[in-house]
Amino acid sequence: MKITFVGATRIVTGSCFHIQTGKSNLLIDCGLFQGAREHEQKNAEPFPFKPSEVDYLLLTHAHLDHSGLIPKLATKGFRGKILATKATVELCNVMLLDSAHIHEREAEWQNKKRMRAGKPPLQPLYTTEEATYSLQFLQGINYNEIVDLENGVKVRFQDAGHILGSASLELWVKEDA
Predict the structure, then answer these.
(1) Residue 60: which of 172, 173, 171, 160 has the closest Cα?
(2) pTM, to two decimals
(3) Distances (CA, A) of 133 to 43, 58, 71, 80, 96
(4) Burial class (CB within 10 angstroms; exposed 0-12, middle 13-18, buried 19+) of 74
(5) What is the DSSP pairing of strand 56-58 with strand 25-28?
(6) With contact defined as beta carbons under 8 Å apart, do 73 and 57 qualify?
(7) What pLDDT, in 10s, does the model give residues 69-123?
(8) Cα-flanking dihedrals φ and ψ of residue 129, to 5°?
């Protein structure tokens, strides 16, 4: 098994962990980098993995620093399943659309300034349409239910008590010896 810390390393934002086994390719969280400009610029960088090869995204909770790059992941080719608690799915249905609206308005505001300066326009990180598209991949899971992801991986979402729907994940990974 190989675990790559993609985000939330040396900073407390952009949570994302890439787990590769002999038969599975998973993410835990896919969060937006927030805060200082140099952190936020990381949101525009390409993912260090191929989104189309990710089988599952396991989402711990709906805060944007854990879920905010889901629309980008979907537009870059992710076609797997996003598993989260039912409450997290409901919150993401609101929060990701709101985040997209903010990205669109921010790009619009920046582009007014850029046009006056003769600079080319910027695209939002993702649009409301892209966020809406990404929501189809979300699936609600009950707390304490062991879910067999196949390929030797099982997961259980346990109440973390952080925000509504937040979960600590318990993973079982069986690889060929």
Answers:
(1) 160
(2) 0.92
(3) 19, 18, 7, 13, 11
(4) buried
(5) parallel
(6) yes
(7) 999 999 999 999 999 999 999 999 999 999 999 999 999 999 999 999 999 999 9
(8) -60, -45
Q: Is the pLDDT of residue 31 over 80?
A: yes
Q: Residues 60, 66: contact at Cβ < 8 Å? A: yes
Measure the CA–CA gap between 130 and 124, rounded to whole angstroms: 11
Return the closest-CA partner of residue 51 out of 14, 33, 25, 29.
25
Q: Which residues lie below 8 Å from residue 151, measured CB to CB, with a gap of 6+?
A: 21, 23, 24, 55
Report the alpha-carbon distance of residue 29 to residue 38 in Å, rounded: 21
Residue 129, number of CB atoms within 10 A of its CB:
12
What does the chain come to in residues?
A: 177
Nearest to 131, CA basis, from 160, 82, 98, 157: 98
Task: Let me know: does 72 contact 125? Beta carbons within 8 Å.
Answer: yes
Q: What is the 3-state secondary structure (H, E, C) of the chain?
A: CEEEEEECCCCCCCCEEEEECCCCEEEECCCCCCCCHHHHHHHHCCCCCCHHHCCEEECCCCCHHHHCCHHHHHHCCCCCEEEEEHHHHHHHHHHHHHHHHHHHHHHHHHHHHHHHCCCCCCCCCCCHHHHHHHHHHEEEECCCCEEEEECCEEEEEEECCCCCCCEEEEEEECCCC
